[in-house]
User: What shape does this take?
Amino acid sequence: MEQLTVSQLTKDLRFEGFLLVRSADQRTGSNGSKYLDMNLTDRTGEINCKVWDGTVQPPAAGTVIKVRGLVQEYNGRLQLRVERLRYTNEADGVDLSLLVPCAPESPEVMMAEVDETIDRFASEDLKKLVREMLRLAGDKLPWFPAAQRLHHAERSGLLHHMTGMLRTAEHIIAAYPFLKGDLLRAGVILHDLSKITEMKSDELGNVTDYTRDGLLIGHLVRGVARLAEAAKNVGVEGEMVVLLEHMIISHHGEAQFGSPRMPMFPEAEVLHWLDILDARMNEMQGIMDRVPEGAFSEKIWSLDRRMYHPTYEGLE
Assistant: This one.
């Protein structure tokens, strides 16, 4: 299965190959004609695609299709004008590992790192509480993504985000010894766990939509409720529980980003910035991977700016 990757696509290039359906909808244009709007992906990136034929039915998210078409540019973004598409069959011999965006490390390695972190907690109550939260999260954590579109939108992305933050947290803890390191580590592990109930994802890490719980409640509020349940289950109470609840509910930082409370103690503040830093670096790494050196990206709506990929001339 040799084909160009999404990150290699450029304007006016012809493409033929297999891609994974992230989303697909039949829409109606301003002139009343129907067309197919799709977002297709491989492990290197995602591209919007249009099929200007109203009779073509949208393929289901999570399926693999073969497409042929021309890469164009629309509003500063690349877009594939699809001329033909078909579903795959066994004879195609599609290698899914080339199409599914995955975390760079195996879930087994990342889960082992999380387990070792918990084992080092000095407080037995904190160990019990965090392990109960992981138990309540169920068996989806090893493959669950961290987002539908932006940072860590990949198979095992939630673990990738968690371990990335844990590694950065160790440097912060060393730089500011007054911090309660285990409290911060626990906050990192717990802060996004309830995304598992917030989004609908298959085992490939493909998120199709938000759940009813996700839309009505959200992972911050659900996370606090789940932590209260976990604390009751293991018989832990007191300020430790309240501090962790606050860290979950405040980690987005401000009300405009969904936080009912701003961080009100140092470990909560650090958790907020660790979350932003890890998310931004993951998103920017993806941009650098698909933008040639010395070139600018299209405007990234989540960052509200274009990004430049430096040549780093003279730098090691």
Summary: The radius of gyration is 22 Å. The chain is about 35% helix and 20% strand. Residues 76 and 298 are 6 Å apart (CA to CA).
